[in-house]
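Re-running the complex after MR caught last week's input typo. The corrected sequence lines follow. Everything else is unchanged.
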Amino acid sequence: MNIFRLAGDMTHLASVLVLLLKIHTIKSCAGISLKTQELYALVFATRYLDIFTNYISFYNTIMKLIFLGSSFSIVWYIKRHKIVHRSYDKDQDTFRHWFIVLPCLVLALLINERFTFKEVMWTFSLYLEAVAILPQLVLLQRTRNIDNLTGQYVFLLGAYRALYILNWIYRYFTEDHYIHWITWIAGLVQTLLYADFFYYYFQSWKNNAKLELPA
Amino acid sequence: EKDQAPKDEL
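Corrected-run output:
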């Protein structure tokens, strides 16, 4: 494992911890898109189908369990926790799951490395992860006061993707393998979706102003 | 001889 991959994983982990901190400690999910969280739960459920059959490392298994457990518990918190649920911006979080899930499923059935159930599900999870942030970005744009934790959560998620690209570039030059093109392209699309957010995030940071995305 | 990269990422 290289430094970019480790930094990417740690940033991903930090994003989850920031979100759990907001939900568990402040008991608020204001500004957080349940749609995006449900899509992430689906991403991990379909990607880690081989978690118990294909052992890679202790680190790998633990991280998979953390991402599975945290994504499903975040969804549970927003939907079922009495106090947390009250802060959910239901009327603003209007993105339709099916507009995202269906095209990803069709694309995974058409473009994959091998036409087997596990392989198609793995490919589907990559396509879905690439666009799962969209409901969250739409919600951010509609939110007048984006609180610090929500801004940091999205920033950390974007940073995680950017670090993964550096990791792939590093692996390309240091390892002798064929490239998983699907992973690269889906990952690149995913990172580009954050470009606009990054721009306004750094602007607000530079000017010491509150983060706000223009409609 | 190149082979497929292992799926060892998260």
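None of the earlier attempt is carried over here. The radius of gyration of chain B is 8 Å. Strands of chain B lie at 3-4.
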